[in-house]
Amino acid sequence: MRGARSSSVGSGAMHDTDQIKAAIRYHERTKHQFNRYADGPGQLDWANQPNPFRRYEGAPLVRLPLLAAHEAPRSPYYDDLYHRGSMPSAPLTIHALSRLLQYALAISAWKQAGHVYATGSFVATWS
């Protein structure tokens, strides 16, 4: 029984080895090198670009207010950020989130194609 088991594993291992070798060959052909980028298709497929803004089914789209500099919540002074206790805690509101993302530029991805710019930001929420 032991011999039968090892032979069935051995035949599967040969198949897995072929797949691994094929994956390694593909990786070697397509990876970036120390002195050059990986070879690409030579052009961009503009018809099949992914949506730069992630949307989740069932999640509502909420427009954040663009706050003026004098509107609350105001940004703390830079030096106050480094002194414990100089900034009181505040509730997380839509205005506070808007201010945070405004000053953080809310950018996690930036793409440019000619005169077209696309940015993306992602905010994790828990319920």
Main attributes of the structure:
127 residues; alpha+beta; 2 domains; two-stranded antiparallel sheet; 31% helix; 8% strand; disordered N terminus
Commentary on this structure:
By secondary structure, this protein is an alpha+beta fold. It has two domains: 40 residues, no CATH class; 83 residues, no CATH class. The protein contains two helices and two strands. It has a two-stranded antiparallel ribbon with strand order 1-2.
Short characterization:
31% of the residues lie in helices and 8% in strands. The chain is α+β, with helices and mostly antiparallel strands and 127 residues long.
- Adjacency order of strands in the biggest sheet: 1-2
Shape assignment? elongated
Mean pLDDT: 75
Q: Note the gap between the termini.
A: 54 Å
Query: What's the main sheet like?
Result: 2 strands, antiparallel
Written as H for each helix and E for each strand, in order along the chain, the element string is: HHEE
What is the chains' assembly state? Answer: single chain
Indicate the proportion of strand residues. 5-15%
How does the helix and strand content classify structurally?
alpha+beta
Number of strands: 2
**Domains, number:** 2
Any idea what the radius of gyration is?
A: 26 Å
Helicity level, as a percent range? 25-40%
